[in-house]
Each structure stands twice: as structure tokens, then as C-alpha cells.
Specification:
By secondary structure, the protein is α/β, with parallel strands linked by helices. The chain contains 14 helices and 20 strands. α2 (about 80-95) packs antiparallel against α4 (about 115-135), α4 packs parallel to α5 and α9 (about 270-280) crosses α10. The termini are far apart. The protein binds 7-thionicotinamide-adenine-dinucleotide phosphate. 7-thionicotinamide-adenine-dinucleotide phosphate (TAP) binds near residues 183, 184, 232 and 241. The site of 7-thionicotinamide-adenine-dinucleotide phosphate has 26 residues, from α7, α8 and α11.
């Protein structure tokens, strides 16, 4: 029985105009690729959305040349105050076309419209606004004011437009030009962004968008005409990229995986903590590198937290990403669904107890119910490996020292959350947690002024804030 009935409230897809096929965006215009093509599908329905060009090494060469010409002839010579005008213009157009971008993102990615509309698109615009403000103040950044040159940027499928903004805004503000590759399963908002660059009259070649698979990304990062590599994605591919560019003078920043601990003390406001736990792991179906996928609960409140958490999870609405009531959308691809299922089955085999929120899964598309595992130990693979799906592992602790030890017992170091009424305890924990970001009494909060990045196998370099300029300046 539903807690109370909702009428469907779907956003209309009519606002987006998806073309049957797309070329590459090189030198300010859409051109045919010289390689093959692939299809992008709606993960909620499995409907084919468009045919996408797969950039070949010759296309990569073309795009790098276009970016180099734009860098030498225009962009690196332009005063920062002039570059800023373009970034402000792009930010304004993103805001003006926000509904279109949000609907397109939800269709191609599967994420709920509530998230693409209220999180991804506004923060993407905010990144351009924020870095526009830096473009004429670089000498005060503390990192110099000379750009690096041409940046190869490779991004994943979990936040397609937002990751594009994190990469392109600081690069352009600093005077670099870029060649960016979106993930194979989510190319559409990057291609719409290419149209936005045209609309903003951005000089040709400053931004180039190459669609394709991993081999296109590989050709980009190994291209000799590249000065900087910026990558977000899996630790495995990040390591391969680090190996590929070792021994060259390319600068590299890597944003990789995570296995964040969300730590709840017995003096925490439990209802708020439960909201934070839900947001930490079920936001974007758990396809979040900093997702709070390991819940550490103090033993004295374990039963209470678990009961309230299960009650709250039972109210999550899974289904049509375009419905404004939807909390949990589709898994981005059949491959990712298989990975999630496989790791969850390892959890079963290791003896952990699986509980899934009662909900009907749609019959077509890729879906996984909000799930938690109890009886998890630190040795379990579900407690150690990034699951990148709506699956939470629950562990317990007795003392703050034990919480720190368990939280840090991971090869990753991207983020953590601490829930407690005591500010002194939060500061004590934050001092000891080996994580790039520690949220207190909240989770998954992002702001362009705040640097984000990891330690250990979560990568190196920072994105966002003043620190985000460092990766693009000499
Ligand atoms: P990755 O394989 O790391 O893909 C990230 C980006 O790199 C994509 O654009 C990908 O292209 C490209 N790429 C793949 N191989 C490359 C190579 N050798 N050289 C250069 N670029 C390359 O991630 P995925 O396959 O989408 O997901 C696999 C797992 O990675 C997930 O299960 C998840 O655990 C993790 N993941 C983590 C993050 C973050 S933010 N930490 C993000 C996404 C995924 P294609 O998309 O065309 O393959």
C-alpha cells in the first residue's frame, strides 16, 4: 500500500529536439566523424535515442589541431576580462536553457528530473559563473597566470553535464582550450553544450567535443599535442592513464573512485541523519564517486537507525526519471546493472543479509531497488569495493577511534560524513579522516567555490574553488 497516492507528474520531453544522428564538434562546427558510430539509449526504456559518431585517431588529431590553433591565435592572447564575458554568456545560456538540459540529461542518463533540474544543471551554470569571475584575477590565484595549452578532458556518465562544467569552466577561465570526451552512454548534453558554445559565439576551436568509447579517450590522452589531461572515472582507467602519460611533460589531474564512510554517532539527530544516509547513497542511484556507501552506526543507536532507515527507504519512489515525484531513476546501462548485481551477489555469498525496499521495478529498462546489507564486516568485498549503485553496506562501531579506523580502512579517500551533535567531536573526526571532503551533519553538498578531490586511490588534484585553477595554470 502506498503511504498516500500520487498522480504522475511527468515533465514533457517535447522541449528537447534529439536529432537522429550527431557528428563531432570540431573547430566550432559539427563535422562527420571519420570512424564508425554507436547508439545512445534511454536507460529507462531501452529506446534508441540517436546514432553518435565514434571519433577515430584521425578525428582526435583534427580536434587537437583545432584547439591548438584557437589557443595560439585567439584564446591565450585574449585578456582575461574578455574571456570572462564568454564564460558569463555560457553560464547565462545554461540557465536560460536549463529545462531543456535537465530533460535531456534525464532521458540520456536515467537520473530523476528532480536531480537534473535542481542539482546538475544549476551547479553546472554556477561553475561557469564562478570561474568567469576568476578569468581576470588569475594573478591573485597563487598559482600563476599562464595557461598550459590544450587540455584533453575525459568524463564519466554519472553527471554528464556537471562533469563537463567542472572540466571546461576552469580550463577556459585560465586561457586553455579543450578537447572533451563525454562517456559513451551519455553524449547528448555535451552535444547540446556544443550548440550553446555556438550560441555564445565562442571562438571556433576553443571547445571541441569528441564522442566515442574508451579507445577515443585513450587516443586523446596519449596525443603528443596535449599539454594537460583531466580525467574523472574509475580508478582502473585512471591508473592506466597515469601510466600512459608517465615520462611526458603532460600535467594530469585524476578524480577517481571512492568508498565513503557515513558515520552516525548516538548523539546525532537521527531523523536528519537518516535523510543524509538516504541522500548519501540513493542520490543519482548511487552512481556517485563520493557516495556514502559504507554506513558506520554507533552500536547504541543501531536498531533505531536501521528501523527508521528501512521505513524511509520504503517511501522512496522508483520509476520514470521524467516524473517529478521520482526519487530513484534508472541504472545508466545494462553493463552497470550487471556490475551492481554481481557485487550484490558477492555480498549474499559472503554471508551478509540483503534487504531491499519493497517496490515494483518497471519491466523495460535497467533498474535496481534501493538495497542495504547488514551483517557486513570490513573483510567483505561489498565493504571494500566501489559498487556505484543504490546499495548500502551497514557496519557498526563503539568508539570514535574505532569509527576513524574503520572509515580509513579503504584504499580510497574521497569523502566522508560525520553526524553528531558535538562540534568538537566533528572537528576531531575531520582531523583524522583521510578523505578529501568531510561533510558534517549533511552529505553530498557541492558548491563551485569549494575544492573537491581525493587522497590515495581516489586520485589527485582538486576541482572547484581557487584550488581548481591550479591544474590549468603554469
Ligand atoms: P571508466 O571506464 O573509467 O570511464 C570514464 C571515462 O573514461 C569514459 O568517458 C570512458 O569512455 C573513458 N575511458 C575508458 N577507457 C579509457 C582509456 N583507456 N583511456 C582514456 N579514457 C578511457 O568508467 P565506466 O566504464 O563508465 O565505469 C566503470 C566503473 O567505474 C563503474 O562501475 C564505477 O565504479 C566507476 N566509475 C567511477 C566514477 C567516478 S566519478 N569515480 C565515474 C564513473 C564510473 P567510455 O564511456 O566510452 O567507456
Amino acid at each position: 500500500m502506498e503511504p498516500f497516492p500520487y498522480a504522475p507528474a511527468p515533465e514533457s520531453p517535447a522541449i528537447v529536439d534529439i536529432r537522429p544522428s550527431y557528428g563531432l564538434f570540431v573547430g566550432g562546427e559539427f563535422v562527420d566523424g571519420r570512424g564508425t558510430s554507436f547508439k545512445t539509449v534511454n536507460p529507462a526504456t531501452e529506446e534508441v535515442l540517436a546514432e553518435i559518431a565514434e571519433a577515430s585517431p584521425a578525428d582526435v588529431d583534427r580536434a587537437v589541431q583545432a584547439a591548438r590553433t584557437a589557443y595560439d591565435a585567439v584564446w591565450s592572447r585574449m585578456p582575461g576580462s574578455e574571456r570572462a564575458k564568454y564564460l558569463f554568456r555560457i553560464a547565462r545560456i545554461i540557465a536560460e536553457r536549463s529545462r531543456e538540459l535537465a530533460v535531456l540529461e534525464s532521458i540520456d542518463n536515467g537520473k530523476p528530473i528532480r536531480e537534473s533540474r535542481d542539482v546538475d544543471v544549476p551547479i553546472a551554470a554556477a561553475h561557469f559563473f564562478y570561474y568567469a569571475g576568476w578569468a581576470d584575477k588569475l594573478e591573485h590565484s597563487g598559482f600563476g597566470s599562464t595557461p598550459l595549452g590544450v587540455a584533453a578532458q575525459v568524463i564519466p556518465w554519472n553527471f554528464p553535464l556537471l562533469m563537463l562544467a567542472w572540466k571546461i569552466a576552469p580550463a577556459l577561465a585560465c586561457g586553455n582550450t579543450v578537447v572533451l570526451k563525454p562517456a559513451e552512454t551519455t553524449p547528448l548534453t555535451a552535444l547540446l553544450f556544443a550548440e550553446i558554445c555556438q550560441q555564445a559565439d565562442l571562438p571556433p576551436g576553443v571547445v571541441n567535443i569528441l564522442t566515442g568509447a574508451g579507445s577515443t579517450g585513450q587516443a586523446m590522452v596519449t596525443h603528443p599535442g596535449i599539454d594537460k589531461v583531466a580525467f574523472t572515472g574509475s580508478t582502473e582507467v585512471g591508473k592506466a592513464i597515469a601510466r600512459a602519460v608517465a615520462g611526458t611533460d603532460k600535467r594530469v589531474t585524476l578524480e577517481l573512485g571512492g568508498k565513503a564512510a557515513n558515520i552516525v554517532f548516538d548523539d546525532a539527530p537521527i531523523d536528519q541523519a537518516v535523510e543524509g544516509i538516504v541522500d548519501g547513497i540513493f542520490f543519482n542511484q548511487g552512481h556517485v564517486c563520493c557516495a556514502g556507501s559504507r554506513l558506520l552506526v554507533q552500536e547504541s543507536v543501531y536498531d533505531d537507525v536501521l528501523e527508521r532507515l528501512k521505513r524511509r527507504m520504503s517511501t522512496l519512489r522508483l520509476g520514470d526519471p521524467l516524473d517529478k515525484n521520482t526519487d530513484v531513476g534508472a541504472i545508466n546501462s545494462s553493463e552497470q546493472l550487471l556490475r551492481i548485481r554481481a557485487l550484490a551477489e558477492v555480498g549474499d555469498a559472503e554471508g551478509a543479509d540483503r534487504w531491499s525496499a519493497p517496490c515494483d521495478l518497471p519491466t523495460s529498462g535497467f533498474w535496481f531497488p534501493p538495497t542495504l546489507f547488514t551483517g557486513v564486516t570490513q573483510a567483505h568485498r561489498i565493504a571494500r569495493e566501489e559498487i556505484f549503485g543504490p546499495v548500502l553496506s551497514v557496519l557498526t562501531f563503539r568508539t570514535p577511534a574505532e569509527a576513524v579506523e574503520k572509515a580509513n580502512n579503504t584504499p580510497y579517500g574521497l569523502s566522508a560524513g560525520v553526524w553528531s551533535d558535538k562540534g568538537s567531536r566533528i572537528l576531531w573526526m575531520a582531523d583524522r579522516l583521510k578523505a578529501g571532503v568531510v561533510w558534517s551533519n549533511t552529505f553530498n553538498k557541492f558548491d563551485p567555490t569549494s575544492p573537491f578531490g581525493g587522497y590515495k586511490e581516489s586520485g589527485y588534484g582538486r576541482e572547484g574553488g581557487r584550488h581548481g585553477l591550479e591544474g590549468y595554470l603554469r
